[in-house]
Each structure stands twice: as structure tokens, then as C-alpha cells.
Amino acid sequence: MSTWLITGGAGMLAQDVLARLAAEQDDAVVLARKELDVTDPASVRAALAEHAPAVVVNCAAWTAVDDAETQEAAALAVNGTGPRVLAEACRETGAVLLQVSTDYVFAGDATAPYAEDAPTAPRSAYGRTKLAGEEAVLELLPDTGYVVRTAWLYGAGGGNFVRTMIKLEGVKDTLDVVDDQRGQPTWTRDLADRLVRLGQGALAGTAPAGVYHGTSAGETTWFGLTRRIFELLGADPERVRPTTSAAFTRPAPRPSYSVLGHDRWKDAGIEPIRGWDEALTEAFPALLAAERPEG
């Protein structure tokens, strides 16, 4: 038994981490933003004093990528200052900190998977703020700080691309979907499992601190993912038509290549996450029930 504290408790990842810990019969507390403001040092110290966690999993984040372009200071408070505040508190108490980060810390113009130690070069405000959080954790907690980068997350517990496509299939004759961005669709339940195992490894002394990549194996495009969603719905995948990023102009640039490498997991004795298609197939009934409960 060990106490875990999970921030950002209203999000789908935090809920899956909590469920994974419950399955392990591990003592855990999950705190939403209204219960814990990670940017407030006094609140963070009080939470750690009250719950005395051995591991803190920081799922709190500013995830509105486009809004961050015009509200970078606000995004930095959550994505950069928040992790620093948590890291300082964890350093005082000796707790392990797992910081969830993103593929947006890279330039997104590679042609081979980004290794964990590949140079970072964020091209958006969101990426810059998340990188600031990474740097704070790694600087303050060289032996007990873990950064887990993920991407293209979906799950039953919140809004995401997969659930949106399930919804749109029922109301649109055709869908134009971007086919020039490559990445790794990742089920929050799979990521939650790796976060828990990484935290357990940290406590056991078998998982070295540092950067890990928590994304599914394989790769596809948003177009390819949507066609697979249609197939799982029993719908005609030809209703999904490829288009380019230029057709969907947004304030923040999207990485054209978000494929991450997973070599670091072997250092912790943990298997990387399975292939994206296998995971999506298993996750799909719960996603469908969440989006179409009447079905």
C-alpha cells in the first residue's frame, strides 16, 4: 500500500489512473482543479502534508492548444509553474513526481521516431509551456522526477478526437480529415497503466528517473484513424476523405510528425504500449457507449 496523489482529477487520464490504482488496491486520492490549484505553493504543500503521497501524478494541464497562442502567460502558469511548484514540494517531502507532457515539445518535422533524448524545439506556445514544466521537474528532481510524453490521447471519460468522429459519423454523409499529420493514437487506459507501473518502479528503485514516451506503437494519420473508426462502427470508410492541414488553418501550428520512440522503457523493465489499432479495437465499445449511450 502506498499513497498516490493525482492532480487534474476531472480529466479522463486522471480517472483512468485512479481506476488502475483501485485495481491494484493502492491507496490514492484524486484532486480536481477546484480542490488543488497546482500553481499555488501553499495549496500544494498543504495537499502533500495532508495526504503524504509517495507518488504524485500530475495530470493537471492547460490543453487548449490554440488558446495558448494568445494566452501564453496563463498556459505557462499551469503547464510550467504548476510542475515547478509540485516538484519543489516533492523535493521537500521525498515524493516521486510523474509529469505528463506532450509531443509538442518537438518541432514535428522529423522523418523517424523521436527518441527520448532528441533535441526539443517547440513551435507553439503550448509546446513551450509544456517544455518549461519538463525542465522544472528534471532540474529539481534529478533522481525522483519522471517526464512521460504522450500524444493523440483518447478515452471514454472525456471529449477527444475518437469520440468526436463517432458522433460525426452519425450526422455527416462525408468527412474531410487531415492526412498529412502522422502520430500514435493512445488510449488513456494504456497510458494510465504505464504511469502506475513507472511509479511502482520508481518506489522499488528499478525505474531510472528521466524522460519516457507514453504513446502506442505504430503510426497513422488522422485520416487513417478516422477510417478505422468508421470500420469499427460498421460504416463505409470511403465516406472519409483525405485533406491537408492547409484546409484547416488554426492559430497554433500542428506537428506534421508526432511519432515517438519508446526505447527508454527497457531501462525500467517495462514493456512499451501496444499497437494503436489493437488498443482502439479493445477500447471501442466503451467509447461508443460514452458517445452514443442510447445505442
UniProtKB/TrEMBL annotation:
Family annotation (Pfam families): RmlD_sub_bind (PF04321)
Oxidoreductase keyword on record: yes
InterPro entries in the cross-refs: dTDP_dehydrorham_reduct, NAD(P)-bd_dom_sf, RmlD-like-bd
Pathway assigned to this chain's UniProt record: Carbohydrate biosynthesis; dTDP-L-rhamnose biosynthesis
Top-level lineage group: Bacteria
Major enzyme class: oxidoreductase
Keywords: NADP, Oxidoreductase
TM regions (residue ranges): none
One function term, GO molecular function aspect: dTDP-4-dehydrorhamnose reductase activity
NCBIfam families, per database record: rmlD
Function: Catalyzes the reduction of dTDP-6-deoxy-L-lyxo-4-hexulose to yield dTDP-L-rhamnose.
Name the record gives this protein: dTDP-4-dehydrorhamnose reductase
Organism: Glycomyces tritici
Gene this protein is translated from: rfbD
